[in-house]
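We emphasize that the prediction below concerns an isolated chain of 136 residues; any contacts that depend on oligomerization or on bound cofactors are therefore not represented. The input was used exactly as deposited, without trimming of termini.
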Amino acid sequence: MNRRTRYQQGSVQREKRRSGPDVWIFRWRETGPNGMSKQRKAIVGTVTTLLTEASALKAAQALRINANQQAPHSECGPKTISELVAHYRLKEMANESRERKAFSTRSGYECYLRNWILPRWGNVRLDQVKPVAMEE
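Result of the prediction step, given as a token string:
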């Protein structure tokens, strides 16, 4: 009998560090190849950059997309342009992926995202985006 895959929201918790400021940790469960559930976690940011739990939850949206990519339904993907941009920043422009894009490319993309795309298109749902309007 197959179990239904559910969309998981995950949770954000504040965790103390030995040195440095406290951090926000995003926690979720992942099913392994043997069918057993495994607890996972990832650092969202420090409490100095993300002051409230609500801001940490908002920043964890890109991680939530990754946690739910096993889900077969369409609800697991990004719903708005801002969620898509957060996912892109996490996967393509993170510090670990420096080999993929040059510094000038990343800074140029970040400038476009921050100054033009997010202010105009950030709250627009992906299913409402029209190519002609985006091109303009």
